[in-house]
Amino acid sequence: MTARAPLALTLVLAACGAPTPEGPPDDTDAEDAPAARRRALVIGIDGLRPDGLTAAHTPVLDAWFAEGALVLDAQTQATSPTVSGPGWASILTGVETSRHAVIDNDTVTGRSADTPSFLQILTAQGHRTAVIAHWTGIPPLVGPDAGPVALAASDAAVGTQLAARLAADDDDCLFVHFDEVDGAGHGAGFSVDQPAYLAAIEGVDAALAATATWLDARTGEDWLVVMVTDHGGEGTGHGPRNDANIRIPQGVVAAGVSVTPPPQPSHLDVAPTVLHWLSDAPDLASFDGASWLP
Ligand SMILES: [Zn+2]
To answer: Which among 9-13, 34-38, 250-254 has the top mean pLDDT?
Structure first.
């Protein structure tokens, strides 16, 4: 992620009245306008190190999070190995491993029913949700009684399926999972010195370009966009609880709202942040993470 000017301000400006040629927005018109509908997109990028995100050329992600908050020192769940099963379980449920019970990649089908995913909570509240995932461990972690969960064969396919889903359906919340950054890390190394690792990050950014264009063209909708990962990496692996694996990047942007990360941001913050945005009465105290929204 290189420093550059935001490509589009639509996400934030969409909530504002358009100025008239005569002067500022007309208050009467603003009061008469229907409230913008809130929607959310959660972008999961498996095995994304903070320095990898910084070093890669990611114009789509840069433009989104220039308007919100992007931190490079968030943390994974505070317990259990830094592997995908417990990582994505904590992201989807907003609670620690001791509560969701997914201790490794072999226990993804054993997530506690007492700690539903944010997609299950939203579905129970009447919201429309959808998931597109590259890793087969994601569907059982999302759980039953949520919206459709599709598998994609590549990160490019995740992007294509996401763009198609946005154009054809009317979801309130979409969660997508990209897996090739983790794959490049295991193959070449989780390192900014490995061109394959940076290329995979740039591939995710490119896969999101059509979605960014689509979101920029929307009116009457206020979008929350979240970027999250399950763990970092070192060498060609991850799992031990050390800084290289625990420290992760995380971003949140919300149309028309200032975003404030808590003192120690965590990927457990994603579920409460999404529910804070979309739910009328979110039970934020039930999560081990914290909302980034006011
Ligand atoms: Zn992973």
So the answer is: 250-254
Higher pLDDT, 32 or 84: 84
CA of 78 to the centre of ligand 1 (A): 16
Confidence bin at 265 (pLDDT 50/70/90)? very high
* 276 in Cβ contact with 286 (< 8 Å): no
Beta bridge partners of 44: 177, 228
Q: Which structural domains are found in the chain, ordered by start?
A: 33-286 (3.40.720.10)
Q: Which two tokens stand for residue 176?
A: 């997508």
Rg (CA), the chain: 18
CA of 179 to the centre of ligand 1 (A): 7
- b/e 54-64 (16+ beta carbons within 10 angstroms → b): bbbebbbbbbb
How many other C-beta atoms are found inside a 10 Å radius of the C-beta of residue 110? Answer: 14
Q: Among 147, 131, 169, 122, which residue's Cα sits nearest to residue 278?
A: 122
Q: Strand 37-45's sheet: what is its strand order? A: 69-75, 247-254, 221-228, 37-45, 173-178, 129-133, 149-151
Q: How many angstroms does the Cα of residue 276 sit away from the middle of ligand 1?
A: 26
Distance 83 CA to ligand 1 centre (A): 5
Contacts of 276 (CB under 8 A, 6+ apart): 282, 284, 291, 293
User: Which residues, listed in sequence order, are joined to residue 183 by a DSSP beta bridge?
Assistant: none
In sequence order, which ranges of 169-208 are alpha helices (DSSP H)? Answer: 180-187, 195-207
